[in-house]
Amino acid sequence: MKDSRAALRYAKAILSLAKDSKEDAVVNEDMHLILDTISGNKQLDTLLNSPVVKASEKVNVLEALFAKRVHKITQGLFRLLKENKRIDLIVSIARQFAIIYDFEHNIQVAKVTTAVPITDDIQKKVLEKIVELTGDQANVENIVNPDILGGFILRVGDMQYDASISNYLSELKKEFDNIHYIPKI
Asked: Which domain, by its residues, includes 21?
């Protein structure tokens, strides 16, 4: 709990600094890059959370990975976290930053559950449809669940649209269960 509050404070401070220099969109992209990179690499995540590895070595790894790919504000965050011995908060800070940024820019998270991963083309069409329906921008989060068999389940905010084959079969089963067969005598 204490770490999440600290991550939120860092995220707010970095967002404020980025907004002052009109670089908040760039820093938001950096935060997504950091999240995707660390969450996609178990060894990197383990290294960053290891109490055995020195903070300076963790920062060296982050700088080697991101030095030419992120904005100077994000690089400054790495150094600040090194000085404060809080480098293990980087993922939490990036996540909190993205949440605050999305909230301030009316960007929703659209969760699309499919049986197989969606392609970039389908993701683009989903985003267009969401903007058409809600008037707000959205980030697509694809959840792969083979149990839905096919189709998709779209959840944006408190709205959900279930066009999955498993839902269709469930509805069909309910209809058959409600039919009372009366044989002719």
From this structure: 2-103
Beta partners for residue 140, in sequence order: 110
Handedness of CA 43, 47, 50, 53 (dihedral sign): positive
Q: End-to-end alpha-carbon separation of the chain, Å? A: 70
Per-residue pLDDT at 163: 87
pTM of the complete model beyond 0.90: no
Q: Among 68, 85, 103, give the residue marking a domain's end.
A: 103
Same domain? 99 vs 132: no
pLDDT tens for each residue of 125-148: 888 888 887 777 888 888 899 998
Pair 135, 156 in one domain = yes
What 8-state DSSP symbol labels residue 138? Answer: E
pLDDT digits (tens, 9 = 90+) for 25-79: 999 999 999 998 998 889 998 988 888 988 888 888 988 888 888 889 998 998 8
Give CA separation, 72 vs 31, 35, 48, 53, 105, in Å.
13, 17, 21, 25, 22
Closest by Cα among 185, 146, 145, 152 to 168: 152
DSSP string, 19-73: HHTT-HHHHHHHHHHHHHHHHT-HHHHHHHH-SSS-HHHHHHHHHHHHTTTS-HH
Measure the CA angle with vertex 80, ends 43 and 21; round to 5°: 110
